[in-house]
Design goal:
By secondary structure, the protein is α/β, with parallel strands linked by helices. The chain has 6 helices and 5 strands, in the order βββααβαβααα.
């Protein structure tokens, strides 16, 4: 997985989007968080782990590659599970100024900007709008996936019996 934050810019509220993109099947998880701090990123990963359960989280997020932003600086807290003694994931960092090492995530952030333009105050964007953007991205057929959607490709990759976490199920 690749991880980044998308924020409002100067003059906007401190709220931002935490984006996680699976590199091979292009599944996107977009969550609105209150600010770009390590505590907020950790709290959101903790909430996701509680929703999914420790085993499912570890199975889905074997490793996460982030940029060198301050919001990802507390490596131990981000890797530590809130539900068990095992680490929940391994965190890696891209080289400075090498956004190409997280190219899928950067591309997806650009797609998010089609729905939430750069000048938009993310603090004023509803969680519903964020969720609709995520759902659109996860149900858009991709040429690289031979016409499959990212959610269908993830289900094929994980095999029979895999249950999608509730935050990935498409809300109709």
């Amino acid at each position: 997985w690749e991880m980044d934050t998308v924020y409002s810019g100067k003059g906007g509220s401190p709220a931002c989007l935490l984006t996680l993109t699976e590199r091979t099947v292009r599944v996107e998880i977009t969550r609105k968080i209150p600010d770009r701090t390590a505590q907020s990123v950790q709290a959101e990963l903790d909430a996701m782990e509680r929703q999914m359960g420790s085993r499912t989280f570890r199975d889905l997020f074997k490793s996460i590659t982030a940029d060198n932003g301050a919001e990802f600086s507390d490596v131990e807290a981000l890797e530590r599970s809130v539900l068990c003694t095992l680490p929940r994931t391994r965190l890696y960092f891209a080289h400075p100024y090498c956004s190409s090492e997280r190219g899928t995530n950067e591309n997806h952030n650009g797609i998010i900007r089609r729905f939430i333009p750069k000048a938009t105050d993310i603090g004023k964007v509803s969680k519903t709008a964020v969720r609709q953007t995520q759902d659109w991205m996860n149900t858009y057929p991709r040429k690289i996936l031979n016409g499959l959607t990212p959610l269908v490709a993830l289900a094929h990759q994980k095999g029979e019996g895999f249950l999608l976490p509730s935050f990935l199920k498409v809300v109709v």
